[in-house]
Amino acid sequence: MEYKIVLTETEKLAMEYVALDVQEWIHNSAKERARLAIDEIVKLAVEKFLENGQSIPGSKDEIVLAAYANGWIISAKDKTLEIKQLVK
Hints:
The protein is mainly alpha-helical. The two termini are 35 Å apart. It has one domain (9-87). It has helices at 9-18, 22-51, 60-69, 76-87. 70% of the residues lie in helices and 0% in strands.
């Protein structure tokens, strides 16, 4: 999956002030946040697998996919939509 961002000249200069390589910094930031989210999801899903007496898949990728498939987690977008529905 590929994502693209656009920085203003001022944002670019600001990033160059704090990062040796802006592209690498952005890449590493996104990858690290994804890694943290994967770890959170795996922890939650493993607890659910154990509660339900189910076998735990062999990889983190499979665990994340199973967590979504079982409805144990939902995307931030879907959470936001659910909250908006409750507020109405």
